Amino acid sequence: MAVSWPGMVQWWEEWQLRVLALSSLFLQCFLFVSATFRRYRIPALFRTCIWLAYLGSDALAIYGLATLFNRHRKPAPGAVAAAGGTSNGHGRSSMLEVLWAPVFLIHLGGQDTITAYNIEDNELWARHAVAMSSQAAVSVYVFCRSWSGGKVPVRCPVALFVAGFLKMGHRLWALRRASITWHATVSSDRRSRRKTTAEEEGGDMSLENYIRQAREQAATRNIDDAVNINDDGEARRAARRRSREQRAQLLAPNILEELMELFIDFPAPYARRIVYLTSFMALENYDAYYNLCNLLDLAFQFFYTKKNTNYTIVGIFLWVLFFLLGITAVAGFDGLDSNKDGLDRDDVKVTYILLCSAIVMEFSSLVWLNDWNWVPLWMLAPEMHRTIVQFNLIGFAARSRWPTMVMWIATLLGCKNYVNQHWYLEHRSSTAKIIGFIRKDLTSGWVSLRSVADHRRFNDRRGHWTLRREQCYGELGWSVTELPFDEAVLVWHIATAICLHCTDVPTAAEDADGASAAARSMEISNYMMYLLLFQPDMLMPGTQQSLFTVACREIRRALRNQRQQEKLSERELARWLLFSVDEPTTAAAEQGGGGGEGRHLANARRLAGAMMELDADRRLRVIGGVWVEMICYSASRCRGFLHSKSMGVGGEFLTVVWLLLHRMGMEGLADKLQRPELTTGDVQDAVVV
Fold first, then answer.
1. So what's the pLDDT on residue 622?
2. Global pTM?
3. Residue 3: its pLDDT value, please?
4. With bands split at pLDDT 50, 70 and 90, how would you rate the model's confidence at 334?
5. For residues 328 and 152, what is the distance between their CA atoms, to the nearest angstrom?
6. What is the DSSP secondary structure assignment for residue 141, as one 8-state letter?
7. Is the distance from CB of 646 to CB of 655 less than 8 angstroms?
8. Buried b (16+ CB within 10 A) or exposed e, 501-526
9. More confident residue, 496 or 557
10. What gap in Å lies between CA 227 and CA 335, rounded to an integer?
11. Where in the numbering of this chain does the DUF4220 domain appear (predicted)?
């Protein structure tokens, strides 16, 4: 049977508002279920769906209010239903449609699991307040113009309107409390009061005393036993169970306040740092790693959900009040008969669905409010909390020269570069091991600090500390002191790949620890290369992404003498770059070191050649130590705002390192920018190697 166009138009006019209401409800349910998974590594398509649902939920609710306003801005022609409802133009009562206006307000209030998708949404809370005020005014106007009551008790719409206003106000309150500006203002007042109290009690700890106590704490720890991360699965699961049991301790007001101060780049007093350092050094193996993950999960919830308000007395009161109002509305609507009361049967069904769904989702948020981990341990591997992204420049060059089937298809579709840079990103589940690798370096570093100058040099290191310790600064020091940081990352990335591919690491190391150190070094190298290309602001302010394009062009030029039919693996390509590249460019770069073409690859070959002259164990210590220093250098100079922003799209491993540095008592960005100048005696100590 053919469907006529006028019939379709008539059906849409009758069902338009119902479809909008149910679609808005569907998006709310989708956000309620899926928003929690934003803090895990999820497929990009799933994350895009969450983003579209976040944007579309408000748009759909606003469109529903606009449609309701257009339907009822004038008295509808036709007879009024016996129950007192106005006609919608098709001979059926539209009284219940008017009742959906406060339901759209409840949907505009959003879900507790997602108040903001980007950190900028919190800063725009005032704009949201203006928009929500106009939307609330429109809904009240439509209701007052069109509501005739009938058999539906007046307490039902009144309860829904109050619940809608509370829901919207709660969302605005959560956005405001999660904004960086609000935290900076509140923290400034709080710190001024603490400073006054500290001065009355005798002042804060001095830097000299802090360094002495931190060195003593590090010296009492067995470095190898305390921070070594092994592959014991049972130990990992036991540590995760302990971390879940200890999550409630993180909700203490002082811990939350101090964690938020970290994200707004407020330096912590030395007395607090020594407490962090003492407690963190006492943790074993995976316990330290999961402690960092719990803190980051808590920060995510406070920036991007209503957790920052739900843990207050007012927040709990609002939740109870909203739940009671929802029950009141459903109780007032219950018992109505569409046949006896002159109500449209479809409108009655839709109304029941909307009201009951709102109560169920609000009740379910009680589980989330109490921070119950409803996801079983076996469903989510611990590495899904934080994975480290891998991007290898040599592998990228190999795919460009010998494309895969995916690359052939991408070339035909005109998106070769996008696919090559995004499709082939790897995610390694070795974050706990890398954190242990870095933690071991920081612990051993504390033992060697003797003065304020040593402490400052240790926090400013970007490779030269390791080179001096291994007594090869004269041969390799130029690579970390004469080159800009972004260029040093690129040069060391290529040189590391060449050295590790051109030597048999397990045989050279003669133990599993050496092989593990080589793997961790390569993973940090690949991750830093990923930051250079995809997150340059987090790597270092002023980072040039164009270095990647220049380096790729240099590698392609170096391969011009290699026969096309000989497909090389990454290992073979690394060997080719070391042994089979023309020498004139390399010699020119070594002599001048200027900005000529080919200098990045030439510097990398020069660095790799110098490191190949070292013995195997020493070479691995140099590579591992330099990369630890580089990632710590980058993390400590990244603003807290960028770390909080990255958590909205899954988070970056650099944020875990940044929090590790804080818990290990290292200096942050604010400490580096606001620390006083050294005295003459300290300057003389600082220049001593």
1. 94
2. 0.86
3. 54
4. low
5. 12
6. H
7. yes
8. bebebeebbeeeebbbbbbbbbbbbb
9. 496
10. 65
11. 51-402
